[in-house]
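Quick one, T. Sequence first:
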Amino acid sequence: MNRRTLIACLAASTFASRALSAENGLTPLTAALRKGGLVIVLRHASSPTAIPSKEEAAPGNFGPERQLDAKGRDDATAMGEAFRRLGIKISAVLSSPAYRAIETVRYAQFGIPLPTRELGDDGQGMAANVEEERRAWLRRKVTEAAPAGGNLLLVTHAPNMTGA
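Structure tokens:
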């Protein structure tokens, strides 16, 4: 790879199947991610658009806020397992403060995320109008060096990614 920074928008099942399907065992993307020093931008795993009732809310979802559905929990878990199986290290995680983003990190077992306002959606979900400040922040962040010994993971929302 000739770029120091890589933006990889990954869906767990797509990533895992593509990464493991190369004849030699490694795709160029997997090799670059194993090497480290990259910034990975990831949308939180699948979540329904409805906010759960207090009775349906997951433990810790006191808001309550949107949370991962069964597919999201399974996908986040599978993604974390795929990263570990492929030897892809995550050395730091910045996450949207939204419950579903932090929950994605937890199910994937990527470590303790640092909630970061610029990665959030201010509770707006898919209808979020991403302000220029967030777009600019994300564009800058992906050009910064990742912490030594792995990759920097940014967990955010689709509007932030497409806006940037």
